[in-house]
């Protein structure tokens, strides 16, 4: 029968006890750090909540609803020399319109998409907001329904304008909002064509080429949209 070294057992027992105490202390430290981290997150969330509420109360002046009388037309169009307008209709009022034009000499109809024209400053703001929105929006934004997405996009769009401090007149605001909505909710440059119920087919013969459409009333038409 082997001999039992009680002194060694006692030493090991003491060593184990010290190890357990050390682990308990470490666990207590971890729990304390975790609780402090949770509390810090809660405080940050509370601060952000207060900031959001303040923004709602004392943020930028509320935008006036768009009206042609007050803000003017967002889309303007004059056909090229030798061409005349034979029909025009809205694709997404008041942002985007389709014009069917005709050239008597060429005996040709064409389909013109007209969208708001951005000036250099508006173009720069649009570019900044596009980048910021991609970073700001959560992944599940692109999985939600269109109505829900539009609400989230609009709120985030307004928040970013307020946060960054972009100085925008109402007319500029609505012009930029159209392009943000077009690119994030719809189909980018081909959105106007996709929204036209009079089109039965859309085609393109290569990269950076004019797109063609088959119109119910005018058959095959070349558009001014390059894809």
Automatic annotation (TrEMBL):
Q: Where is the PilB3-like N-terminal domain?
A: 63-116
Q: Which residues form a coiled coil?
A: 13-47
The source's superkingdom equals Archaea
Concerning InterPro entries, the annotation shows: PilB3-like_N, T4SS_GSP_E_ATPase
TM regions (residue ranges): none
Signal peptide from the UniProt entry: none
Molecular functions (GO terms): ATP hydrolysis activity
Pfam families tied to this protein: PilB3_N
Which keywords appear in this protein's UniProt record, sorted alphabetically? Coiled coil
What protein family is recorded?
A: Belongs to the GSP E family.
Record protein name field? Type II secretion system protein (GspE-3)
Q: Which organism is it from?
A: Archaeoglobus fulgidus
